[in-house]
């Protein structure tokens, strides 16, 4: 390249004026460039999502296993223990308020809290106490049998076998006896209570204490209403070739949330973790305007001869669709036969299409409950399968915007429609606010992000994988 | 230089397929590149097509930029080659029109436009009236700084043809310029 050109003044003037000249391109140029750009990162992003979802599921599964099968030997120091409260003989209205009765020995068959219930179902709980703070002395006994366990085994139930405590433990017992002088006067009162019955004393009086509740099985079932909104379909990979504007850009005409109705079954696995399986049915009808811009010369010349025929061209373009791939074929010709359009004549074609799809979304999620009380938070993440039950595509209109070119007379445009594969896998992430309005009923509302990892039509062509955001409301019954 | 660092960082991000970085790079150079496209194209619509294809090609071939020279220079080369390919495609479709009736003027004749100096848009409109091949020679020689042997190699023409076309270009432009100024 020569820098020192011998330029005449005219050329120099052109150079000086135009070398630094800038011109603003049309506003939609980036959209057109982006439509033509390859999208390799989408695949890796998709792989990243898949990897993240798998990692999340593996981590959650491990956490569930650890929580479920971890040995439950020592209850935490803050564990709430039940106390057998017995009236004193000399002071019937006074209830003992000191030592917990429960055994802290490891219980392999039941959770730690159940170990604190009276083994012989003598009395229901009337008062709750926290265990004394853990000290060196107590911790020495917690792994075996605490001093007060043997004490109660003597005092509360006269039929229980004598304690096998050692000499040191006997000393401890004495210490406890002196510390709790009133308890030494307790006389065991036989109280009988059957399953789901009120406890009764020998006198026949019904003790109106806490009514025993049937424990929950952990199952729940709910009905869901899910409104989802899918943003615009991302442009498809353009057709290979020399075409400059090969893609019809789709503009949805009726962008509105799509309702889906369904059910969800959930099972509490352990503590705060649960697993839920749902099924959401939705029916979608979308109207989309597809706009294609290209050159008349880019079409295939039609076979056959005759005057004017060489100016007739056939075009075949792919449309951006949701539930499959649609290719539209049409023919164009100049408006006047004596005025054949040049090859570079721009063509703008507008196609109005209607798309119909029936989808059953089946999310399988792992849930983690945050907080306690009536209002709690629930985080959900998992996979979702999209089952395409039915899909259809219809072209309602096709028109040319160029006055010099028109759709060829006597030749109707044709649509080649290939439906998407019936099963596509995706992801589901949501965060719910759950309100327990009744012992068995729970109402939750949750924003949801869901999408598909990949989608292909029945011929194996890749389809766009739009993500959807939405809100789901669920009313569930637990038992 | 800060701009170069920004370019390098953006180029690396573009190579990873980062759409934001691609958009940023596009925004930075779109005005310059579109002006270049306007000079090579016969119309604004055609310039839009060249600009679109140029950016697509630039992002696709970004890995070939070795980072030794200025990025803008490399980008200009991509756009020039895209424009030339576009012109070549057009030449195959539409037979080249010869510039008849133009006289080769004296190259050393001074021009003085004074206060009525035509704007860049005006000059571009004049350039767009040239036949594609002639326009390419003028752009390559006068605005891109290529030599006649280089132009001959790029366009697949002889050196003499290149020189001849440039002379005709200038004479034609001079006539068009005079006509436009008279009007």
Kindly summarize this structure in a few lines.
The complex is a heterodimer of chains A (479) and B (183). Chain A is α+β, with helices and mostly antiparallel strands and 479 residues long.
- Average pLDDT level of chain A: 70
What percent of residues of chain A are in strands? 35-45%
CA radius of gyration of chain A is 38 Å
Largest sheet of chain A: 8 strands, antiparallel, barrel
Residue stretches of chain A low in confidence (pLDDT < 50, at least 5 long) are: 73-147, 149-165, 237-247
Binned strand content of chain B:
under 5%
User: What is the topology, as strand order, of the major beta sheet of chain A?
Assistant: 3-5-6-10-11-14-15-16
Tell me the structural class of chain A.
Answer: alpha+beta
The low-confidence runs of chain B, each spanning 5 or more residues with pLDDT under 50, are: 101-115
């Amino acid at each position: 390249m020569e820098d020192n050109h011998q330029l005449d003044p005219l050329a120099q003037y052109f150079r000086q004026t135009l070398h630094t000249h800038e011109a603003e391109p049309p506003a939609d140029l980036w959209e057109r460039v982006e439509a033509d750009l390859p999208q390799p990162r989408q695949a890796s992003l998709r792989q990243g999502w898949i990897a993240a979802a798998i990692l999340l599921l593996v981590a959650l599964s491990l956490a569930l296993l650890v929580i479920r099968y971890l040995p439950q030997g020592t209850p935490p120091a803050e564990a709430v223990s039940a106390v057998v409260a017995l009236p004193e003989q000399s002071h019937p209205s006074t209830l003992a308020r000191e030592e917990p009765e429960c055994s802290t020995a490891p219980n392999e068959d039941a959770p730690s809290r159940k170990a604190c219930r009276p083994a012989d179902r003598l009395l229901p709980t009337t008062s709750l106490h926290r265990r004394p703070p853990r000290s060196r002395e107590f911790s020495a006994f917690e792994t075996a049998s605490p001093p007060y366990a043997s004490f109660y085994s003597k005092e509360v139930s006269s039929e229980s076998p004598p304690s096998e405590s050692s000499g040191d433990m006997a000393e401890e017992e004495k210490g406890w006896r002196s510390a709790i002088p009133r308890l030494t006067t307790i006389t065991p009162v036989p109280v009988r209570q059957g399953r789901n019955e009120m406890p009764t004393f020998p006198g026949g009086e019904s003790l109106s204490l806490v009514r025993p509740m049937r424990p929950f099985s952990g199952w729940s079932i709910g009905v869901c209403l899910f409104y989802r909104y899918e943003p615009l379909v991302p442009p498809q990979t353009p057709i290979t070739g020399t075409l400059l504007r090969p893609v019809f850009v789709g503009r949805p005409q009726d962008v509105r949330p799509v309702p889906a109705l369904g059910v969800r079954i959930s099972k509490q696995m352990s503590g705060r973790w649960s697993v839920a399986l749902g099924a959401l049915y939705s029916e979608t009808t979308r109207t989309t305007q597809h706009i294609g811009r290209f050159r008349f010369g880019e079409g295939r010349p039609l076979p056959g001869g005759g005057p004017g025929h060489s100016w007739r061209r056939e075009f075949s373009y792919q449309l951006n669709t949701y539930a499959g791939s649609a290719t539209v074929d049409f023919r164009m010709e100049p408006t006047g036969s004596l005025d054949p359009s040049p090859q570079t004549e721009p063509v703008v074609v507008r196609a109005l299409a209607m798309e119909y799809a029936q989808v059953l979304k089946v999310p399988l999620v792992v849930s983690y409950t945050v907080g306690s009380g009536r209002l709690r938070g629930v985080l959900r993440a998992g996979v979702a399968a999209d089952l395409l039950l039915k899909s259809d595509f219809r072209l309602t209109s096709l028109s040319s915007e160029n006055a010099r070119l028109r759709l060829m007379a006597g030749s109707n445009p044709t649509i080649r429609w290939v439906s998407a594969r019936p099963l596509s896998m995706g992801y589901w992430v949501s965060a719910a606010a759950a309100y327990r309005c009744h012992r068995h009923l729970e109402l939750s509302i949750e924003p949801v992000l869901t999408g598909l990892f990949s989608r292909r039509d029945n011929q194996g062509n890749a389809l766009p994988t739009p993500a959807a955001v939405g809100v789901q409301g669920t009313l569930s019954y637990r038992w | 230089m800060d701009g170069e660092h920004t370019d390098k960082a953006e180029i690396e991000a573009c190579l990873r397929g980062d759409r934001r970085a691609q958009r940023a790079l596009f925004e930075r150079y779109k005005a310059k590149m579109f002006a270049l496209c306007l000079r090579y194209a016969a119309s604004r619509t055609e310039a839009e097509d060249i600009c679109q294809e140029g950016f697509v090609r630039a992002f696709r071939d970004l890995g070939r930029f070795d980072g030794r020279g200025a990025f803008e220079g490399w980008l200009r080369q991509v756009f020039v080659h895209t424009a030339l390919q576009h012109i070549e495609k057009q030449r195959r479709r539409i037979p080249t029109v010869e510039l008849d009736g133009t006289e080769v003027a004296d190259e050393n004749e001074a021009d003085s436009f004074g206060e009525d100096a035509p704007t860049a848009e005006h000059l571009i409109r004049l350039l767009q009236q040239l036949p594609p091949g002639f326009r390419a020679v003028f752009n390559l020689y006068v605005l891109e700084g290529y030599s006649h042997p280089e132009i001959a190699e790029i366009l697949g023409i002889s050196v003499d043809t290149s020189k001849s076309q440039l002379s005709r270009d200038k004479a034609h432009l001079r006539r068009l310029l005079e006509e436009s100024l008279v009007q």
